[in-house]
Fold this protein.
Amino acid sequence: MPSLKSLRLRINSVKSTRKITQAMKMVAAAKLRRAQSQAEAARPYADRMERMLASLGASVAGSPDAPKLLVGTGADKVHLLVVVTAERGLCGGFNTNVGRFARAQVRALEAEGKTVKIITVGRKGAVYLKRDFASRFVMEFSFANKKRIGYEDASEVAAKISEMLDAGQFDVCTLIYNRFRNVISQTPVGQQLIPAPLPEVSAEGGAQYEFEPAEEEILARLLPQNLAIQIYRALLDNAAGFYGSQMTAMDNATRNAGEMINKLTLNYNRTRQANITRELIEIISGAEAL
Amino acid sequence: MASFQLELVSPEKLLLSRAVEMVVFPAAEGEMGVLAGHAPMIVALRGGVISVREGGKVTEQLFVAGGFAEVAADRVTILADEATPLASLSKSDAEARLAEAEAAFTSAANETPEKREVAMERLLAARVMVEAAMAA
């Protein structure tokens, strides 16, 4: 039976752990709110961009000199995976889920005889995937020192991808990240970036636009922008999902700590009572022996 | 005067969404003023200043670093890469950006024409930004 003192020490240590997890939960909740509103603020731009792309893309997609960003290189040999994860841990299965999803993708693609290249955004994904696929790494981005993700971070990633495409270093690009469904559920998804899937032209979009400068030129400017926007959206989803996941994980940890404290306290009280009873028996039997 | 719905969005937020009478924006091939009932157009923008007119007066002026505008009969949507109200432009920021753009442009001298063009555009946008910051 553990001594009273060691029990007391354990209770105290679990209590301070609970304090920490509780504080982390509060912080995550506050940051989640901010990340969510940032994600919402970015939505109008993405929506309007989609609408514009839809009215533009349909007219250009068929032509033979359509931009590479839209139609890809025509081949399907080299795949580039852009894996977005969080910078930190202590968030339940958040990073592991994306990591596992990415690993399955790499394995599946390689089984088909394709070449795979990897770019990671976020420290955790890099650590996870390096173990198995270090030779496929092209680049790692990390925004650990940023307080909040900005659009320019996303364009930095997008610029690197465009550069690689121009140099003919890959044929198909897929973005893997945790899609934010709600606070407790995030699912890893793979979204194809290049060749770009065109949004459907809505039936009522019958208005005939004039273009200035020519359609191709506008499209050539719009597509890189669209790439950056898709990545930006993924980064924001990732940030919101991370805080959501961390909040849930820390909430569970706090609850578990509470249970543990109850159990230990019960144990402590029983032991104390047992000690008192034993002492009493000793005194009484000593007195009777006299 | 007839009015139309103007929306100005940047990747980070929705900056403006209300009915206005006229908007003037820096299209890639020259300034363009749009009133209600304009023919539908999609235009690329260069760096410059967007002015919004309501009640016969300029009510709002914003600097944009580039972007796109979609004009329809009853609404105009401007997708700006980055938009700042003129009043909150800082001169030192603008100058730092100009210096950076100049350096990028000189170092791009041996690059492909497309890259030079991009650097050039950025340089021009930065110049406009400095001018706008000075004026404000």
